[in-house]
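User: I'm preparing a small set of examples for a lab meeting where we compare how different chains pack in three dimensions. I only have the primary sequence for this one, and I'd like the structure in token form so I can line it up with the others. Please keep the answer compact; I'll paste it straight into my notes.
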Amino acid sequence: MEDLFSSLISDFILALVLFSIIIVTVFITKKFPNIWINRKIIHLSVVPAILCYMYVFNEPYIFFSFAIFFVIFLILPHAKSKELSWFQEKKNYGEVFFCLSFAILAIPCWENWRILGGVSMLFMAVGDSVTGIIRSRFLKNRGKHWSGSIAMLATCLIIGAFFLGYKGIILSLIATLLEYQPWVDDNLTVPLLTAVFGALLPI
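Assistant: Understood. Below is the structure token output for the 203-residue chain.
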């Protein structure tokens, strides 16, 4: 019990540093005019936390707790119709789903699929961010475009191959299709279903 308490304290201190990075990024983007680019910049600020989940945290509980905190922090402005307008849009809960999917993966993936869980998160945090930034060069309004899918695939191929080898390459293809499909928010489909497919793949 004492070891668990010490691990949680250590994780909590680290989480505060990672939390500060994300919060500072959120408020820095307030100075920028493009809501969709701002969302992607904020996505990227989560990368250090994901890497710490994969390799540094002693337990999954602090990561899970901070993810839930962000779910609540982000859904309250929607509930009050007082969205943080530089990165939130009315009736668009993508940023809430982004944090929720990380919370859902945190504990179940910890013992046997921690790297897989982290890669699934990185596909969303990095792959989708690059996708959105590239796509914005071609589209004036938010939408799907072949340029974004190519960017998603290229980015996820690098991430997947680096962390998971051949399995990561297969999952990068799956993640790209999950990002492109128009029916369910990709902030849920990319991390959650990539992790599920990864856990089911025999290689």
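A couple of notes for your slides: The mean pLDDT is 93. The CA atoms of residues 139 and 145 lie 8 Å apart.

User: Perfect, thanks.
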